[in-house]
Amino acid sequence: MDKRVLTVLLVGLILISLLAPFSGLALLMLVLFGSTLAWVGWTLLRTLITGNSESSNGDV
Q1: Tens digit of pLDDT for each residue in 3-26?
Q2: CB 18 within 8 A of CB 29
Q3: d(CA 54, CA 29)
Q4: Looking at residue 24, what DSSP letter applies?
Q5: For position 38, what pLDDT does the model report?
Q6: Residue 20 — left, alpha, or beta (φ > 0 → left; ψ -120 to 50 → alpha)?
Q7: CA 24 to chain centre
């Protein structure tokens, strides 16, 4: 559950950074947002297929 809360908070912070006016690092934020969406999509897909959201390489 803690990972979910942390993920939601991080995605929220990324969205705030993307929408912040006069952001000097807007392109970097777009890349970060895209990679976050890909990571979340991959995790959801892996969970749907295997039924297990835990990483198989032992990461906690």
Answers
A1: 888 888 888 888 877 777 666 677
A2: yes
A3: 27
A4: T
A5: 92
A6: beta
A7: 21
How much is the pTM? Answer: 0.47
Q: pLDDT at position 32, please?
A: 84
**In this structure, what token pair is assigned to residue 17?**
């950074």
Tokens coding 21 = 């006016």
Calculate the alpha carbon distances from 16 to 10, 32, 34, 43, 59 in Å.
10, 12, 14, 23, 28
Q: What is the pLDDT of residues 27-54, one digit of tens each?
A: 777 788 889 999 999 888 888 888 776 6
* b/e 20-51 (16+ beta carbons within 10 angstroms → b): eeeeeeeeebeeeeeeeeeeeeeeeeeeeeee
